[in-house]
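<context>
A single protein, sequence plus fold
<sample>
Here is the protein in question:
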Amino acid sequence: MKRNSKHIAVTAAIALCAGSTLPFLAGSSTLDPERDSVKSEVPYCVTSPAVPEKISFAGQEIDLLRYDHRERMDRELMSFTYMHSTTMLTVKRANRYFPVIEPILKANGLPDDFKYLAVIESNLNPLAKSPAGASGLWQFMPATGREFGLEVNSNIDERYHIEKETKAACEYLKKAYAKYGNWLCVAAAYNAGQGRISTQLQKQMVDQAADLWLVEETSRYMFRLLAAKAVISNPQQYGFLLKREHLYPPIPYTEVSVNSGIDNLARFAKSKGITYAQLKDANPWLRDITLMNKSGRTYILKIPTQAGMHYNPKKTVPYNKKWVIN
């Protein structure tokens, strides 16, 4: 018998609500579709993801049975779970950028969990820019970027250079850890500034940033970080079902070293067999149609290979096997 699309959609929604596909929906008990599913003309089911009893971040265990911690975590888990397109896009991007970020964190002695800081700062969008002027995956302000060795001007902005900005972020994080000796305090300081976190730790007479009463943005920031780790490390548990062809693979590049100016980057790109747009996509730190380079510095330009630009998405290698359903 032929069924209409609405009937099929409602049936699928009831199946989801019953927990037959998404295990996190059922929690610790089995739902009865006849008893528990919502009878609705809207083919959609919304439920709250379970909050774990505890979660670890950078070797520190956070108790999520304490009511205030639990409810703050609950809010951020719901946010990540139901910001469907943003969370799914972030997982897709993570397949491309986590393999770049992780070795740099490791080489600098930073916990691997700090890759999730880039997630909550920029949703892993290399071109992200805040209304306040912070830019890149790690959202450096211009002055802070320069302080940590990045070139920032109208022609070159290394806040958009993924490897260099990640190394700069590592320097900031290591400097903060030398001060606090606590990685969650370091994360809070990344958002609010070391001065504010130090002052509030003293005033409120606590040792943990998660115990501070802060402005809403910073109070949420730490638990957004924990929720990002929970959801991005296991998206299927939160209802995000992706196939390997949905993920964005790393793009292979060749590298060209230049130590003089380039008066027309479009012409340069064409000489390398790519478009200006592809050159900019591979090197977003180039901020103009020219590379002035009056100081004679050496820059490394990435040139995407033809094989990389025309890949078979079904052969994408998943960074994390938990991310894919095939």
